[in-house]
Every structure is written in C-alpha cells, then in structure tokens.
Amino acid sequence: MRTGFVGLGGMGAPMARNLQRAGLLAGVWNRTTDKAAALAADCGCTAYPTLAALAADCEAVVICVSADLDVRAVIDGLRPGLSPGKIVLDCSTVGASTARDIHGALAAQGIGFLDCPVSGGVEGARLATLAIMVGGDEADFARALPVLERLGRKIAHLGPSGAGQAAKATNQIMCAGIIQAVAEAMAFAKAEGLPLDRLIDTLGQGAGSSWYFVNRAPFMARMNFPAGFRVRLHEKDLRICRDMAAAHGAHLPVVESTLAEYAELIRQGHGDEDISTIYRLKSALFRDDGVA
C-alpha cells in the first residue's frame, strides 16, 4: 500500500521512517518544507509540494499533527487528491467529535477514515512499539492494519469513529495522575536523602512502578527534562478530556489539578519541556530542596 505521511514532528518523523523501512513510504509533506525535504532525501522518497499531490499519489495517508484545527486543515488540503477507495489514518490526538465529523464527510465520498491516536512517546515512535487505539469502520481497519503494524506493537480496534480518540483521552487522564504521583514520590525521596538512581532501579520492579516511573524518574533525578511529551501538548490533550467529561456533566479533579500546574510551568517558561518537568513544582513543596 503506497503510503504518504503528513506531519514530521517528534513523533511523526520516526513513524515515517518506520514505514520507509517497511517499503511502504511513498513520500511526505510537512508545514516546514525544509524538514520534509531533508527526510525525503534521507529516505529516498518524495517530498510532495502540496497535500493534494501526496493524496493523489498514495493509497493511504497517515497524519500526525498537533491539534483539531491542524487536522481539519490537513484534511481540507488532502481532499482534492483523495478519491473513493483511499484511506486516511489520523494518528493525532484530537477531540472525538472532530474524528466523527471528518469520518462522516469523507465517507460520503467513499473515502475511509480512521482515528488512530498513539501512545508510547518518542521512544515508542522510534522503536515502532506504540500502542494504537483505533476508531472507525471494521473494513477500513482491516485494510489499514498492514500500515499500523509497522508503527506499533499493540493495535486495537475499539469501535466506531471517535472511539480511538475517546480511548486516547482515557490514556491522557491516566498519564496526568501517574506523572503527578511519580513527581511527588521523587520529590519526597530526594527530601529524605535517598540515593535516587538506586531507588529508581529498585522501585521500578515494585508494585508502584509504571512506564513513567521507569522512563521519566531518571529525568527528575538529573533535573533534565528533554522534550518527549511536551507540557504544551499534554495541556492541550487534557483540555480535550475536560471538554469531553463536561459533556457528561463530570468534573475531573486529576485533570483540573494537572492543568493548573501546567499553566504555572508554562508561565515559568517550561512549556516545551517533557511533562516530567512537573517535578520542579513538586520538589518546591519541600523546604531546602535546592531546586532552582
């Protein structure tokens, strides 16, 4: 299946490379054209001049961009080149209502659309070990599976259009609670004078462990937070979660407290750091913590 890839950020670029290694990548498009040209030259594929040109030359298109408006703009750009039988796979994290709107519009033209957001961070994108949550028609899922299998390890079709995004929202709520708990625990451990590297190695095998503890507690121990899952992006995702919960008349305390702390981190200039930078705020809860 000739596949085009749109969006070459921290997640998208390694995902596109995995498709190239599998012999599926026909070419790429990115808002920053230099980035698309560089990846295309490295992978030996095409840097398409327009979204419509990419769509016209590919059987499938994978999208990985930042927000609802970005996805809608990409779809608008692709549509002149899309034709019946083609399929669009959106790996972005957006609202379930956006996914349903796009699915309905493309289905009317005989074009398949799957909302298939991913989880696993830049490491999962690079290693093709992402968890992929898929919403859409079962027939489209079956057709797209050979592409998705080159991007992730755990791939699940969870229901009709929007189900993938609802599952991703569930994941983002979990991430909010877990990163807060890990940061508080690490701040407590530091205040108690524990050897953090040995502690991480030990507790990483315990009942309280998690992916975030194993992979992000070392960032906290070093006070270094290289961009993985950026604060600004998780903040955007949690606003989606808040809106979806509000539609059910629900208020989610974990989401609200995390949004408040992210607002403070963004105010302090840490919005483009990994979300483990929330440790800065947790560490400051302890006297004489030595954290700037």
Tell me what the structure shows.
- With 292 residues, the chain is an alpha/beta fold.
- The chain folds into two domains: 3-160, NAD(P)-binding Rossmann-like Domain (Rossmann fold), CATH 3.40.50.720; 166-283, Orthogonal Bundle (N-(1-d-carboxylethyl)-l-norvaline Dehydrogenase, domain 2).
- The protein is built from 13 helices and nine strands.
- The chain has helices spanning 12-21, 33-43, 51-57, 68-78, 96-107, 121-127, 138-148, 163-191, 196-203, 211-222, 231-246, 253-267, 279-283, and strands at residues 3-6, 25-29, 46-47, 60-63, 87-90, 112-115, 118-119, 130-135, 152-159.
- Strands 3-2-1-4-5-6 form a six-stranded parallel sheet, sandwiched between helices. Strands 7-8-9 form a three-stranded mixed sheet.
- Strand 4 (60-63), helix 4 (68-78) and strand 5 form a beta-alpha-beta unit.
- The longest helix has 29 residues, at 163-191.
Short description:
By secondary structure, the chain is α/β, with parallel strands linked by helices. The chain has helices at residues 12-21, 33-43, 51-57, 68-78, 96-107, 121-127, 138-148, 163-191, 196-203, 211-222, 231-246, 253-267, 279-283; strands at 3-6, 25-29, 46-47, 60-63, 87-90, 112-115, 118-119, 130-135, 152-159.
Give me the secondary-structure topology.
Elements: E1 3-6, H1 12-21, E2 25-29, H2 33-43, E3 46-47, H3 51-57, E4 60-63, H4 68-78, E5 87-90, H5 96-107, E6 112-115, E7 118-119, H6 121-127, E8 130-135, H7 138-148, E9 152-159, H8 163-191, H9 196-203, H10 211-222, H11 231-246, H12 253-267, H13 279-283
Parallel strand pairs: 1-2, 1-4, 2-3, 4-5, 5-6, 8-9
Antiparallel strand pairs: 7-8
